[in-house]
Amino acid sequence: MPLEQTEVDKRLEGIHERILSVIETKDIEKILDLFHPHAVVVHRESGVIYGHEDLRQFYQACLKVGPPIYKVIPIKNLATPDGEYLIQEGFLEFNINDEKKRCEFTGIFKRDEQGIYKYYRNEVDVKNMH
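C-alpha cells predicted for SnoaL-like domain-containing protein:
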C-alpha cells in the first residue's frame, strides 16, 4: 500500500533531522553511514562524488570550514509505491559568510535492510546558488 503524503513528509523531515544531528558531531564515519555504499552526489557543473571514499574526502574538506548546516525548503516530496525510495525536490538554504544562500536540490533516499533511509543520490545546483 502506498504511503500517505503526510507519512512521506514526516519521514523526509526525520531524515534531515538525523542528517543534521550527525553532521554536527563532525564524525566522518557517522556521516558516511548516512549514505548508501553506492551513493552519488552530483554538483551540477562541478562534478560527481561517488561512494564512501570520495564522500570521505569531500566531508573532510567541508568540515575544515565548519559543518555544512542547511535548511530544507521542500517543493515536492514523493515515495515509490513500496516506500523503498523517498524523493525530495526543493531548495537547500545555507548561511555563508552571514548571508543566506539557496540552491536547488533533488535527494533520493533508499531504505536499507534495517529500515533506515540513506542518501542514495543527491543532486545540487551550487553554481546557481542565490
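The mean pLDDT is 92.
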